[in-house]
Each structure stands twice: as C-alpha cells, then as structure tokens.
Amino acid sequence: MGCHDxxxxxxxxxxxxxxxxxxxxxxxxxxxxxxxxxxxxxVQFSDARCYSLWGDNKAGWVHYEGDNGGGSLLSLWHTDxxxxxxxxxxxxxxxVSGQHVKANYFxxxxxxxxxxxxxxxxxxxxxxxxxxxxxxxxxLIELPxxxxxxxWFSSNGKAKSRLDRILVSEEWMQVWPSCKQYVQRxxxxxxxxxxxxxVDKDWxxxxxxxxxxxxxxxGFMEMVKDRWNAYVVQGSSFTKVKDKLKRLKGDxxxxxxxxxxxxxxxxxxxxxxxxxxVCQDCNDNLLVCDRMKRFELVGQRKEVDNKLxxxxxxxxxxxxxxxxxxxxxxxxxxLKWRRSRNQVKGVEVGGLWCEEPSTVxxxxxxxxxxxxxxxxxxxVRLDAVEFKSLSLQDNLRLIEGxxxxxxxxxx
Length: 411
Fold this sequence. Notes:
It contains twelve helices and 17 strands. It has four domains: 8-198, Endonuclease/exonuclease/phosphatase (Deoxyribonuclease I, Chain A, 4-Layer Sandwich), CATH 3.60.10.10; 202-259, no CATH class; 262-342, no CATH class; 345-411, no CATH class. The chain has helices spanning 17-30, 47-54, 124-137, 170-175, 220-230, 237-260, 263-282, 288-316, 328-342, 357-372, 392-399, 404-410, and strands at 8-12, 34-38, 59-64, 73-78, 84-90, 93-98, 102-103, 115-116, 141-142, 145-146, 152-153, 160-161, 167-168, 179-183, 194-198, 347-349, 352-354.
C-alpha cells in the first residue's frame, strides 16, 4: 500500500480560507483515505462543506459540535476506500470503526519529556499513567515517528508538546506492518499535521535464519547432514563453507515449503478433520479405526501448537516465558513492537528526510567511516613511558617450588 492508497493526518482548526486551502492541498497531495480534524470551531457541518474540503462528493463524515464550537471535532473518509461501520463520540474524542481505521483524539502525553516549557501540574503524572493504561488495555500500538519530536508549538515558541499521535490495532499491523507516521511542517496551524504512510522499500536479500521449530522436526537433522556431505565445492576452506551454506539455504527453503509446511494452514486442516470425526461420533457413525485417527490428529495438533509458540517466542525474543504458555497475542505484540522500534526508517541528508535504501546505506557507511577512521594525531604513544618490571631474582623466586617449612607456616 503506497501513500496514495491510504493516508491519515490529524490537524486543528479547519476555519478560514487559508486553512481550508491548506487542508484541501494536503488531502489531495497525500491521497488521503481518512482525515481527523480537531478544534474546527464550527457548530455545524454540511455535506457541501465536507465535499468542498475533500475535493469531491466521495466523502463520509462525522462531526462533534463540542461546546458552541469549542472542542469540536470532524472525521472525514473516502467512501470508496474506507467502509464505515459505526462510531461513538463524546467530549474530546470521536472513535470511528470500519474496515481499516479506528481514530481517536487525545490531548495527553505518554511521558514528561513530551511536554516542554509548560508548568508542571500535580495531576500530570496521573494523566500520563491513565493514558498509558488506556493504550495497554485496548492493545493499541503507536506507529513509529519520523520527523520532529513535538507536534504542537505555542505562538511565542516557548512551549511545545507531542499531543498528536497515531495509535493502531494489532489487526492493522498485520496488514500494514511497515506503517509510519510522518510529522509535516508547521504552516498555518499551531499543530503539525501527521501523515500515515506504508512505504515498502526493496532493501535487497534478507539474511537467512533458522527456525527453532525445525530442530524438533523428525528427519530434519538427518536431511541437513546428508545435504551438507553431498555438496561438492572447490576453493579454500572459507570458500567451501560459504558455498555450502548458500546451497543449504536454498534446500532449506524448499524443505520448509514442501515438508515442514505452513503451520497455520496445517493447524486449520487438522482442526477441520477432528471436527469431521466429532460430527460422525455424534451420529454414532465413527469406526474404531477412525477413533484412532482422531487420537493421532489431537497429538498432531498439540505438536503444531508447540511449533507455533516456539516460532512466536523466537521472533519476539521472549526467552523467559515457560514452554506451554499460549499467549500468542502477547508474542505478536512483542514482535511487532520490537520490529517497529528497531527498524531503520531512513536518514536525514542535508536537512532532507530520505528513505531510499541506496542513500541510507551510503550515509550509514559514511558515518561509520568517519567514526572509526584513525589519524596519526589521535594515536597513543608509549615511547617515553617506563613500566615497572620484575628483576631476574624476583622472577626466580616466583617460579621455584614451595619448601616444607613454608607449607607448615602457611597451615
């Protein structure tokens, strides 16, 4: 999904011709699917007004009027790309649920460092705890930030906060795992717009990794040994190992697809077969041999469950959980959070953000080259340093054996 297929941004105060033109420009530029506006200062909205902001009549919308326009909120979406299901709203929030998005409005931060230049309130830490508890309770994930660390700035520039953020569900991350939220330039608003994009870049071949579940599969180790011994390669010892590993990688991919199989599909097939036998048993049509097959299928299902848990445990690197814990949702959350946190999103070159793999690689290499380049001026010289050393007599005393008198004195 590119940025033209699904984008979402959050901004404040839709009133005024200049601001309306800016909103129409960013909606058209990003090909937005879902738009969230805060503090619109409008008590009422109409189809004509929403269609004007959107650029055509393919827009659905929900408006919360607030207190005579104060705290008013507006959500708009592309009716061809977002299927509306339902919504709830109240003071300070609109939650719209549909096929892709659940959007919420917040005026809170997740840590004290996300507010600068404002007076600390006694309730601020309590507010932070409640906001983080809300995120955890709803199993929401915050998308990685690209750009400025703050999204709101006061008119005098003394205060700043990170009040705007995009939170998504685990189901969203399954469909668009590479989504990020990009902080736009501050132009006519006191808030910076946020644009959600899922930009897939080709970073070249991925490193090969073994799966722990392979090691307990029957016949796996024998297959690896047979293939390894069958490879005939030429060259130095290092070259032979490299070429054998390359060939083994290709054979393991084929084995994983044809023999090991897709664990989720295998589990569904086993459960369906068990269900068929259960239905026959309910009608008293199950033979003795079928009962044995059902018993074997139950054992196979347990094996597949253990393999799935091992796979999720390995990906999420949660090694302290005991075997048998089936909290796969926790594994999945850990996996997605670690991937989004550790992912190299891009680099800033000459003040411009760049995500092209070739540029990122070149900039990373340049940085490490400068970091570890040695110069003559920085080398440590020990020419004039005199170190204390043991004399020949001291050395002989250290290596000579213990006398009986010395042993008795020590005891």
